[in-house]
Amino acid sequence: MNLPSTMRRCLSAFGVWTLLAGQAIAQVPFVPAEFYNTIRPDFGNRLPLCVLPDSATLEQDRQAARSIARMLLLEPDIVEIDADMGMLDELGIWPVIFEELAESCVGVLGVQIIPGEVAPDWMTLSQPYFEAPYVLLTRDPAVETLADLPAGTRLGVPLYTPIDTEVMTMIAAGGEFSELRRLPYDRPELMTELMRNGEFDAAIVWSPHLDLAQVQPLDFFASQASVAPLRQDTRAVAVLMRTQDQMLRTMIDQAIDAAGAQTP
């Protein structure tokens, strides 16, 4: 995809911002309005919503897209973003998302909500439509919580997440957790490999990642335990939209509320 140099610089800054989510950032990246304030095609009675490739919540994303459309009396149109995740450049998937939001869909599902994070001015997020817990995978079935891990435990933690930040803070504070060895990983399949190779003694993982094909079979841990006493014990996902679509955001939020009220 050929993007203007200014756009590439802005997207690159945004990529760094998301990479460092949960840490103190001095400046929120700015994306000039002319790059995203475009008029979309008329979708008629369809509600096109994009889903991310290789999403750990793909089934929940599809279900949410159908439910939101039904609540708004529209026809669901689930658009699969066509991107080879292994071939992306330093800008990541953001140029693809920009293009899809301008041409193919009104929102992108499966985007993580990070509490306390300030979003760039070009984007807005709906309320969450799906939430799942983090779990502690361990080789010792006697471990029931994070507090049961012995000193020196090599603990895998998902990189650039709020729970990773909390683990670092907890270790730095000293006390019973000061001897844990935090070992970050950036992909569930890497966590799986390191657990199988014996380089991790335990690992914190978002539970939907255990359903991914690339981590099967689940033979690399003895039991699942609680991440207590960590407070960032769940992760939620939402619909990402353009900021100028505030009316749409309100409608989608109401649809998510209504769908939740009908769920037993």
UniProtKB/TrEMBL annotation:
<feature type="signal peptide">
    <location>
        <begin position="1"/>
        <end position="26"/>
    </location>
</feature>
<protein>
    <submittedName>
        <fullName>ABC-type amino acid transport/signal transduction systems, periplasmic component/domain protein</fullName>
    </submittedName>
</protein>
<keyword id="KW-0732">Signal</keyword>
